[in-house]
Amino acid sequence: MAGHGAKEHPHGADRLCEAGDRVYSRAVRRGRVARTDAEPVPCLLELALLHPDPDDMEWLVPTSPQEVMTRLLRGVYDEVSESQRRMGSAVAAFEWYAGLGRQLNTLAAPAEGSAIRVLDGLSRIQAAMDEATEACTTEVLTVQPGGIRREAELTEGLHRALELRGRGVRMRDLYTHVARHGQGLLNYLELMGDAVEARTLDEVIDRLILFDRTVAFIPANSDRTLALELRHPALVEYLVTVFERLWRLAIPLTAPLPDTGIEGISHREQSIAALLAEGHQDAVIAERLGISVRTCRAHIARLSETLGAASRTQLGVRIAQVGLDGSRSGALTVPDQGSPTVL
């Protein structure tokens, strides 16, 4: 039956077939569905959306929609995390090779149309960006890491953005959630109107700018005085894929951040808890979320108070117990200080 289902229903839980949608919806409404009713849609069993009722094997009970959503988001998050890791390795490799080239004094002016160009110095980077802006006709995709954007940063590229808007080019920008609190960004988006669509995530990859899905710019060192201009189709396509996956996970700037479902814990504290559970230090967490170390530690202190943790070790245990590490859906209640955990 599994093989037959895979052929007749080639899809995942994120895109049910029409028959599967009807049967699963009915099972959720009624609490269970007869096994015979589910035989035409074996995909529901294969995807673990239905499973046998232990009290009566002739019936199937549904997996809760909340658990299915958690499973889907975890899968996408793992894919994006792997993409981020691979992109970081690629950037490190490019920087290493570029360093070898400079040592050998072979970085002569590249030929026109080179697949990878090393742009050394801010003036050269700006000139290359202006050239790409002038040639752009359709779309610009950007990832802007860090926290609240400074007015100087926004003003720096404003002339390019206005030029693109004037030609009808559409722009999509990804920021961290922290950027929502910057008035400069809100003013910029109001000025640009419907030419720009912005979304936010807890954390994003390093800076990325893509023009017409044909040329990309990424930093090549930590202070961004070196950049790579990429025109190799495979590299650019890979970066577009990374952007699109992050975009699907991101939340529109006009929409509120989702509630954590745990009283007293904010969305940002939930993000910090997940990174703490991965073993990251305060400085790393702050950098990834675009906040200061001081702000990060203030949130950690509030997390400890809310979860009733007297030490970092105990905080890690509490985070796992309430599901803030992403491994559970929050089946346990948040304990009061000094009280036992409620199962």
TrEMBL record:
One Pfam family from the record: GerE
InterPro entries, A to Z: Sig_transdc_resp-reg_C-effctor, TrmB-like, Tscrpt_reg_LuxR_C, WH-like_DNA-bd_sf
Boundaries of every HTH luxR-type domain copy: 258-323
Name recorded for this polypeptide: LuxR C-terminal-related transcriptional regulator
Species for this entry: Streptomyces pyxinicus
Lineage: Bacteria, Bacillati, Actinomycetota, Actinomycetes, Kitasatosporales
